[in-house]
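Appendix B, Record 12. Input sequence as logged:
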Amino acid sequence: MVNAVRQVKMDSTQFRRQKMAKKIDEQVKLAIAMRDGQTCVIKRLRSITDKATGLVSQMEVARRVNGWWWTEGNRILLQLKYGTRVLLLNGKDKNTIEVGSGDELIKVLELVKTSVNNGELDAAIEVASVKVRERFKK
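Logged structural output:
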């Protein structure tokens, strides 16, 4: 027998990392689909109540994903977002990563995901998280 305490609530920093990593995964899927000339479909569960019977059922619906990048000339510019807020990458004023091609974009997104999971962007995510929460206090 051992003495153990179950963790009931996830640490807020770990929660933000997981949320950001999930969104980066969606961006990778979108970038791969665009590179291959396909459409990217991200699905989510939606609860729908039948008005006649009152039963609640869950239905899978497609969700639109907006890319975090755009092109200017022959280069691709990538901005990382937490919610609707753009992350400041150096903590001061730099918020965009310049990428050369679509394949490089996918590699950069995978590298950023690794950085997020390692906690290297925790400070930037915290700043964006505070700004997102401020909108709800109005």
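The mean pLDDT is 88.
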